[in-house]
Each structure stands twice: as structure tokens, then as C-alpha cells.
Design brief:
Length: 139
């Protein structure tokens, strides 16, 4: 019997390790790239919104964002209306870094596509989205 969670976990870890190795020359982690991508797509998210969107535990996210802020790749702003609300933004330097990381990620995906074929990859991604929506509907 095939165990879906085992198969998905094994493949996810393998792909994440390979992509993380490609990011080493840029001195970036997979989680940093994911956070920067989220902020490029939706500027000004709060920490809670990022954690929810990326399914990253809050303490881990705080460490990731702090390291990106320390490197001047992200910056935080406080809401003028509610000083307790803090938004996170991608800096100009962060956008340049994200462009380089996206190029590495694209090359990684192109390599995978060459191995298994575009149609297979498209079907796999579509199936995973279907599974995610089905699971979300159940909860």
C-alpha cells in the first residue's frame, strides 16, 4: 500500500534539499526565499499573515524575517492607525536578491521538467492543488 504522506514528504525533502543547495552561493535559505516571494506578491503583510500564508511556525518566521531585516533585504513599518500592527516589506536590495533566487528556482524547475516532462509536472502540480483544496474543504 502506498502511503501518500510518506511519498509526499520524501519528494518534498529531496526537492527542498536540491533547491537549498542552489541557494547556498547566494547565502540564502529556502524559507527566506519563500518569505521574500510572499512579500513580492503581497507587499506589507503582517507577520501573522505571512505565517498563515506560508504555513511557517511563528518563532521560525520571526528568525527568518529578523535575518532578512538584518541583511537589509526586508524592512518593517508600523501602522499609523494602530502602532501595534507591523507590516513587512521587501527592500530594493531584497528585490534584486529575489530576482537572482527566482532565476535559480526556475533553473531547478526546468531541470525537473527535463527529467519528468512538462506534461507530467503540470499534472502533478494540478493534482497537488486539487488535494490541497479538498483537504482545506474538509477542515
Amino acid at each position: 500500500m502506498t502511503h501518500l504522506v510518506d511519498a509526499l514528504t520524501s519528494v518534498q525533502r529531496m526537492l527542498a534539499r536540491d533547491l537549498a543547495a542552489r541557494f547556498e552561493d547566494e547565502n540564502a535559505t529556502l524559507e527566506q526565499w519563500r518569505v521574500m516571494r510572499a512579500l513580492a506578491n503581497a507587499p506589507g503583510l503582517s507577520m501573522g499573515e505571512i505565517a498563515t500564508e506560508l504555513e511557517i511556525p511563528q518563532p521560525t518566521l520571526t528568525r527568518v524575517v529578523d535575518s532578512l531585516v538584518d541583511s537589509a533585504l526586508l524592512y518593517r513599518t508600523q501602522s499609523a492607525e494602530d502602532r501595534r500592527k507591523v507590516s513587512v516589506h521587501l527592500s530594493t536590495l531584497g528585490r534584486r536578491k529575489l530576482t537572482r533566487l527566482n532565476a535559480l528556482a526556475d533553473a531547478h524547475e526546468q531541470s525537473l521538467t527535463a527529467d519528468i516532462g512538462e506534461q507530467t509536472l503540470d499534472r502533478l502540480v494540478s493534482s497537488l492543488h486539487t488535494l490541497r483544496h479538498a483537504e482545506a474543504a474538509r477542515t
